[in-house]
Amino acid sequence: MAHLPPSQLLFTKSKLPVLPPGILLAPATAATLASSQQQQQHTQQQQQQQQGQRVVVPISDLYSSGPVLFLVLRRPGCLMCREWASILSSYKETINSFGVRLVAVVKEDIGIEEFATHYWKEDIYIDTEHGLYKFIGDGELHMCSTFDLMVSPQFWSNVRKASRNGYKGNFEGEGYILGGLVVVSHLGEVVYKYSEEKPGEHPAVEEVLDACAAVATNAATAEPVFCRSAATKSALGD
Length: 238
Known about the structure:
The chain is of the alpha/beta class. Helices cover 35% and strands 17% of the residues. It starts with 23 loop residues before the first strand and ends in a 5-residue tail after the last helix.
């Protein structure tokens, strides 16, 4: 993983930000609901709540038993999101070897079944209040523009790349709120955060694996891990 100069170091091992433990997530599939209930029985936590017709759990329930990689998706029907999810899934064995669990997060109950069937076999949660999306956006929802989705040459280049690799998508669901990726320790310490700047962007796999390896050695003693955003990309050589 590339090391940033001190002026671009966003946080280090001595001052790790903490993921807000009260972010509420709703299990998106029957398998995820069963996993959530099993996890609560294992940790003797009974924090499930009702949010309308949904069962919701605090995000702290997900990481309290071990580190988690949260893949936060712009839209599960997006072919570029599907490609990135498939790439991460192909590294499941390596990521799990670091003791890190894979969890996908979406913002609405649209397109989940197809995504879960073909592209992601791990747990999926719905962030109906956009708490994790706002965390990735430093307190605000990080939005793309209509130009980014309809006109940008880079967007269509990303679409063609995913299409050439055999991925198909649809236009169902909200697509302006951008996602990203977060790796947290069992204490909720954020050792890595990536904020998607444009649709179809994602960090290098090696960078994500470095973050998982770092959290496996314990966040308190790991090498510094960096927050990735548009402000730091040039420093990393992208």
